[in-house]
Design a protein that fits this description.
It is a single chain. With 218 residues, the protein is mostly helical. It is 70% helix and 4% strand. It has 2 domains: 67 residues, Arc Repressor Mutant, subunit A; 141 residues, GntR ligand-binding domain-like (Four Helix Bundle (Hemerythrin (Met), subunit A), Up-down Bundle), CATH 1.20.120.530. It has a 3-stranded antiparallel beta sheet with strand order 1-3-2. The protein is globular, with a radius of gyration of 19 Å. The N terminus is likely disordered.
């Protein structure tokens, strides 16, 4: 396995690095999490890896596999419901805070991001852009606890298979929702911003439910 650089290891502890691998899709749901392989990948001993795997299990990001050992967790239907309920509340509040505290430079950046997204037609690329936009909105809240909470939630969201952008019409509707959110932030309208963010998350959840139902029937 490819080892990470010493400079990278200096910035991250094993838990942070494993969470980043999950978020980036390098470790997908069902992937085996073995101490020896991960220790080699991170270039460290097995003891801190063992501790990190225990934390992942406690956080619900790892589960016991069909064989001995842990795997990256799969989300159940009920867990998806709970996840989106929390996400709607947190992102709604984060967007309200962004409307109240975002600097002019941050607002200009958000506007630039959504305008650039109009030209993107590739679902995979737009998914990555979506993550960046949501992250930037949360950063604009200027609330450390909100940033930390949604950072942790973002890792759990990466356990969801596929992308809602592959569904017919979702790229266009999501773009309109993003533009509404950013416009509300730019206007400093906290009520409107929170409402738009909650609606955006709710729409995504409804599409996710349809995707899960289709998988079950398939």
């Amino acid at each position: 396995m490819k080892q990470v650089s010493e400079s990278t290891l200096a910035r991250r502890n094993p838990l942070d690095h494993l969470m980043q691998l999950i978020e980036n899709g390098d470790l997908r749901p069902g992937s085996r999490l073995t101490e020896a392989d991960l220790a080699q990948r991170l270039g460290i001993s097995r003891t801190p890896v063992r501790e990190a795997l225990h934390r992942l299990h406690t956080m619900g990001l790892a589960e016991h596999g069909p064989q001995r050992g842990l795997i990256v967790a799969h989300l159940s239907y009920d867990q998806v419901r709970q996840l989106f309920a929390v996400r709607e509340g947190l992102e709604g509040m984060a967007t309200r805070l962004a409307a109240e505290h975002a600097s002019r430079a941050e607002v200009n950046l958000l506007r630039e991001m959504v305008m650039q997204d109009r030209e993107i037609t590739d679902p995979g690329k737009l998914l990555e852009r979506n993550k960046l936009l949501h992250r930037q909105i949360v950063q604009a809240s200027h609330n450390k606890f909100m940033i930390d909470a949604l950072g942790n939630l973002r890792v759990h969201l990466s356990l969801l298979p596929g992308s809602t952008y592959t569904r017919a019409g979702r790229m266009k509707s999501a773009q309109a929702e993003h533009e509404e959110i950013v416009d509300a932030i730019a206007q400093g309208d906290g009520d409107r911003a929170e409402h738009a963010a909650r609606k955006h998350i709710s729409e995504g959840y409804q599409i996710r439910l349809k995707m899960m139902a289709a998988d079950d029937n398939g």
